[in-house]
Amino acid sequence: MLTTLQTSYTDTRAGDLAWCLGGEPLPALAVRDLSLDHLSGPARGGDGGPGGGRSRGTLQLRLLGASHQVVLAAGPGECLETVACLPGRRTPLPARVAEQVAGWEYEFAARIEELPPHVFAARAQELLSLVEGHPYALAGVFPGDPSAFTALVAHCEERRVLWRTWHAYPQEGRLVCTRSSLVVR
Q1: Distance between CA 72 and CA 32 in Å, rounded?
Q2: Which 3-state string (H, E, C) describes 82-128?
Q3: What is the tens place of the pLDDT at every residue in 70-116?
Q4: How far apart are the first and last CA of the chain?
Q5: CA dist list (Å): 156 to 41, 57, 121
Q6: What's the predicted TM-score (pTM) here?
Protein backbone atom coordinates (compact mmCIF):
# COMPACT_ATOMS: atom_id res chain seq x y z
CA MET A 1 0.00 0.00 0.00
CA LEU A 2 1.41 3.35 -1.08
CA THR A 3 0.04 6.65 0.18
CA THR A 4 0.91 10.34 0.05
CA LEU A 5 1.32 11.65 3.58
CA GLN A 6 -0.51 14.86 4.43
CA THR A 7 2.19 16.44 6.57
CA SER A 8 5.43 18.32 6.34
CA TYR A 9 8.68 16.39 6.14
CA THR A 10 9.66 16.25 9.85
CA ASP A 11 12.82 14.15 10.06
CA THR A 12 15.01 15.95 7.57
CA ARG A 13 18.34 14.25 8.35
CA ALA A 14 19.27 10.60 8.50
CA GLY A 15 21.44 11.33 11.55
CA ASP A 16 18.38 12.51 13.52
CA LEU A 17 16.81 9.03 13.59
CA ALA A 18 16.85 7.16 16.89
CA TRP A 19 15.79 3.60 17.76
CA CYS A 20 13.58 2.62 20.69
CA LEU A 21 12.09 -0.66 21.81
CA GLY A 22 8.96 -0.48 23.97
CA GLY A 23 6.92 2.54 24.88
CA GLU A 24 3.55 3.57 23.49
CA PRO A 25 2.21 3.97 19.97
CA LEU A 26 2.71 7.50 18.69
CA PRO A 27 0.21 9.40 16.52
CA ALA A 28 0.31 7.83 13.05
CA LEU A 29 -0.32 9.28 9.60
CA ALA A 30 -1.03 5.86 8.08
CA VAL A 31 -1.54 2.40 9.61
CA ARG A 32 -1.69 -1.08 8.11
CA ASP A 33 -3.00 -3.94 10.29
CA LEU A 34 -1.90 -7.42 9.24
CA SER A 35 -2.87 -10.82 10.55
CA LEU A 36 0.11 -13.08 11.16
CA ASP A 37 -1.95 -15.94 9.67
CA HIS A 38 -2.10 -14.10 6.36
CA LEU A 39 1.56 -13.10 6.51
CA SER A 40 2.48 -16.79 6.51
CA GLY A 41 1.33 -17.04 2.91
CA PRO A 42 -0.97 -19.47 1.13
CA ALA A 43 1.07 -22.56 1.97
CA ARG A 44 0.41 -22.07 5.70
CA GLY A 45 -2.87 -20.17 5.58
CA GLY A 46 -5.16 -23.19 5.19
CA ASP A 47 -4.58 -24.77 8.58
CA GLY A 48 -3.76 -21.55 10.42
CA GLY A 49 -0.32 -22.90 11.28
CA PRO A 50 0.46 -23.32 14.97
CA GLY A 51 -2.67 -22.65 16.99
CA GLY A 52 -5.03 -24.89 15.00
CA GLY A 53 -6.75 -22.27 12.85
CA ARG A 54 -6.89 -19.46 15.43
CA SER A 55 -5.30 -16.12 14.66
CA ARG A 56 -1.69 -16.15 15.76
CA GLY A 57 -1.64 -12.42 16.30
CA THR A 58 -1.32 -9.10 14.54
CA LEU A 59 1.40 -6.94 13.13
CA GLN A 60 0.73 -3.24 12.78
CA LEU A 61 2.84 -1.11 10.43
CA ARG A 62 2.68 2.59 11.36
CA LEU A 63 3.97 5.62 9.46
CA LEU A 64 4.73 8.61 11.64
CA GLY A 65 5.48 12.18 10.65
CA ALA A 66 8.90 11.39 12.05
CA SER A 67 9.32 7.87 10.52
CA HIS A 68 7.91 4.47 11.66
CA GLN A 69 6.65 2.13 14.34
CA VAL A 70 5.96 -1.59 14.19
CA VAL A 71 3.72 -3.21 16.81
CA LEU A 72 3.53 -6.99 17.09
CA ALA A 73 0.96 -8.57 19.40
CA ALA A 74 1.11 -12.35 19.38
CA GLY A 75 1.95 -15.49 21.30
CA PRO A 76 4.00 -14.61 24.31
CA GLY A 77 3.51 -10.85 24.33
CA GLU A 78 3.81 -7.52 22.56
CA CYS A 79 6.78 -5.78 20.96
CA LEU A 80 6.85 -2.16 19.82
CA GLU A 81 9.76 -0.86 17.70
CA THR A 82 10.17 2.81 16.89
CA VAL A 83 12.67 4.32 14.47
CA ALA A 84 12.04 8.05 14.40
CA CYS A 85 13.15 11.49 15.43
CA LEU A 86 12.39 11.14 19.13
CA PRO A 87 12.46 14.14 21.46
CA GLY A 88 15.39 13.91 23.85
CA ARG A 89 17.12 11.10 21.95
CA ARG A 90 20.28 12.11 20.15
CA THR A 91 22.09 8.78 19.93
CA PRO A 92 22.61 7.42 16.41
CA LEU A 93 20.83 4.31 15.22
CA PRO A 94 22.63 1.19 16.45
CA ALA A 95 24.27 -0.95 13.77
CA ARG A 96 22.96 -4.08 15.50
CA VAL A 97 20.87 -4.97 18.58
CA ALA A 98 19.83 -8.34 19.97
CA GLU A 99 17.46 -8.52 22.96
CA GLN A 100 14.83 -10.73 24.54
CA VAL A 101 11.38 -9.14 24.58
CA ALA A 102 8.26 -10.71 26.12
CA GLY A 103 9.17 -14.26 25.15
CA TRP A 104 10.65 -13.28 21.77
CA GLU A 105 14.23 -13.03 20.52
CA TYR A 106 14.43 -9.63 18.84
CA GLU A 107 17.13 -8.52 16.41
CA PHE A 108 17.56 -5.14 14.75
CA ALA A 109 20.15 -3.95 12.25
CA ALA A 110 20.55 -0.58 10.52
CA ARG A 111 22.79 0.83 7.83
CA ILE A 112 22.95 4.05 5.86
CA GLU A 113 23.53 4.04 2.10
CA GLU A 114 24.99 7.22 0.60
CA LEU A 115 24.06 7.54 -3.08
CA PRO A 116 24.63 10.14 -5.82
CA PRO A 117 21.43 11.98 -6.85
CA HIS A 118 20.67 10.00 -10.05
CA VAL A 119 21.27 6.65 -8.30
CA PHE A 120 19.23 7.78 -5.28
CA ALA A 121 16.20 8.70 -7.41
CA ALA A 122 16.32 5.36 -9.26
CA ARG A 123 16.69 3.39 -6.01
CA ALA A 124 13.80 5.31 -4.44
CA GLN A 125 11.50 4.51 -7.37
CA GLU A 126 12.58 0.85 -7.30
CA LEU A 127 11.73 0.56 -3.59
CA LEU A 128 8.41 2.39 -3.95
CA SER A 129 7.44 0.07 -6.83
CA LEU A 130 8.29 -2.96 -4.67
CA VAL A 131 6.18 -1.69 -1.79
CA GLU A 132 3.25 -0.57 -3.94
CA GLY A 133 2.77 -4.09 -5.27
CA HIS A 134 3.55 -5.95 -2.04
CA PRO A 135 0.59 -7.39 -0.08
CA TYR A 136 2.23 -6.84 3.35
CA ALA A 137 3.72 -3.38 2.97
CA LEU A 138 3.06 0.26 3.73
CA ALA A 139 4.83 3.29 2.29
CA GLY A 140 4.25 7.00 2.56
CA VAL A 141 5.66 9.66 0.27
CA PHE A 142 6.14 13.09 1.80
CA PRO A 143 4.86 16.13 -0.14
CA GLY A 144 7.36 18.10 -2.17
CA ASP A 145 9.72 15.32 -3.30
CA PRO A 146 8.70 11.91 -4.72
CA SER A 147 11.97 10.47 -3.37
CA ALA A 148 11.22 11.48 0.24
CA PHE A 149 9.48 8.46 1.77
CA THR A 150 9.28 5.90 4.54
CA ALA A 151 8.47 2.30 3.59
CA LEU A 152 7.91 -0.96 5.52
CA VAL A 153 7.61 -4.53 4.24
CA ALA A 154 6.73 -7.53 6.45
CA HIS A 155 7.06 -11.30 6.12
CA CYS A 156 6.23 -14.16 8.46
CA GLU A 157 7.56 -17.68 8.75
CA GLU A 158 6.42 -20.39 11.16
CA ARG A 159 7.97 -18.93 14.34
CA ARG A 160 9.58 -15.78 12.96
CA VAL A 161 8.29 -12.36 11.94
CA LEU A 162 10.56 -10.15 9.84
CA TRP A 163 10.28 -6.61 8.55
CA ARG A 164 12.45 -4.22 6.59
CA THR A 165 12.20 -0.46 6.41
CA TRP A 166 13.63 2.31 4.28
CA HIS A 167 13.78 5.99 5.23
CA ALA A 168 14.76 8.22 2.30
CA TYR A 169 16.56 11.55 2.64
CA PRO A 170 16.96 12.87 -0.92
CA GLN A 171 18.41 16.21 0.21
CA GLU A 172 21.36 14.28 1.74
CA GLY A 173 21.44 11.41 -0.74
CA ARG A 174 21.02 8.99 2.18
CA LEU A 175 18.83 5.94 2.51
CA VAL A 176 18.47 4.47 6.00
CA CYS A 177 17.80 0.72 5.75
CA THR A 178 16.70 -1.36 8.74
CA ARG A 179 16.01 -5.05 9.20
CA SER A 180 14.21 -6.51 12.23
CA SER A 181 13.05 -9.93 13.31
CA LEU A 182 11.25 -11.58 16.19
CA VAL A 183 11.55 -15.30 16.84
CA VAL A 184 9.54 -17.22 19.45
CA ARG A 185 11.96 -18.81 21.92
Answers
A1: 12
A2: EEECCCCCCCCCCCEEEEEECCEEEEEEEEEEECCHHHHHHHHHHHH
A3: 999 887 778 999 998 877 776 778 999 999 988 889 999 999 999 99
A4: 31
A5: 8, 11, 30
A6: 0.85
